[in-house]
């Protein structure tokens, strides 16, 4: 067992390194397109931290006589470049960038939390200590981003150009609807992937029902403000969810990766709803603001439930690797 869990820990370290490579790719370009000074400063500061994370993970691999995976790193750098290009083309770049940054930091936080738990089970103290230290810095960055949502909303509204707040509100509602479409697709696939693990399966089923209700409530608000769902955005987001589903099926440690990704996706939604409620407040639409607040509370609760299921996710992933 000791040999097998050590091998699995090495795989997780190469995964962590590739995640840092994607983060670096994004952080090297993101400050210049942030469109908001405080967000740009936070991203630049975190670039320095992330460079330190990459060095620390590389050193842990070298201590094991291993090296980062060139293939994984190359793929993740390409994904990072693709996101920067996407953010640059959006009319509300500061908001999109802030929501994505929060989500990506949550992915890193979850990945390092899972890594620390696995290292503790393997009795590898240096790896566990490093994972916890990096995890805590990722959490601090999440907190910094959450503290900037007022600023990113203001910057996004300026960049979108129109003085009509109702136009902006309709756009934010359509974006939220599209994200829920992706959430539903992911949860439908995800519950099947973890059906042998009761806690995770029940959590996915419960949030699937909740997400369908959230999407219905968004449709009601779109109707009320004279907006409509974007079938193109919804379709693109669902296709993206299907591609992620295929990715997870290709990994034998699906429960852990799926739990980390789900935690990150909840924070993408959290970032979106934090901004939607601010736009609704500015537009004087109390009902939409209240709806956003209620859904936001549900998303935060789900994120905490996922966090509470990480021990099961670690056990399930190790079992699927033949480590008991």
How would you sum up the global shape? globular
Domains, number: 2
Fraction of residues in helix = over 70%
Q: Give the strand content.
A: under 5%
Q: Which stretches are poorly predicted, pLDDT < 50 over at least 5 residues?
A: 234-252
Q: Let me know the average pLDDT.
A: 87
Distance between the termini: 7 Å
| Broad structural category | mainly alpha
- The H/E string reads HHHHHHHHHHHH
Q: Your description of this structure?
A:
It contains twelve helices and no strands. It has 324 residues and is mostly helical. It folds into two domains: 1-161, Ferritin, CATH 1.20.1260.10; 163-324, Ferritin, core subunit, four-helix bundle (Ferritin, Up-down Bundle), CATH 1.20.1260.10.
Please give a quick description of this structure.
With 324 residues, the protein is mainly α.
Strand-helix topology:
Elements: H1 2-33, H2 37-63, H3 70-88, H4 93-122, H5 125-146, H6 149-160, H7 165-193, H8 198-224, H9 231-249, H10 254-282, H11 286-308, H12 310-320
Helix pairs in contact: 1-2, 1-3, 1-4, 2-5, 4-5, 4-6, 4-10, 4-12, 6-10, 7-8, 7-9, 7-10, 8-11, 10-11, 10-12
